[in-house]
Amino acid sequence: MDSTSQTSSKSQPIAAVLLSRAFDPEESKRILTEKIQQRPLFLCPSSPPPSDARAARRREREKKRLSRKKALKPKPYPPTERRRLGLYDVPRSGQKHALFEPLHQLWLGYIREILGNEIHTGGEGAASKLTSADFHGAEVEVVRSGCVSRVGLKGIVIKDSRFTFEVVTKKNQRKLVPKEGTVFRIEVPLAATVTTATTATTATGTAEEGQQQQQQQQTEVEQPKMIFEVHGEQFQFRSADRANKKFRSHFSKIL
Question: What is the chain's mean pLDDT, rounded?
Answer without folding.
Answer: 75
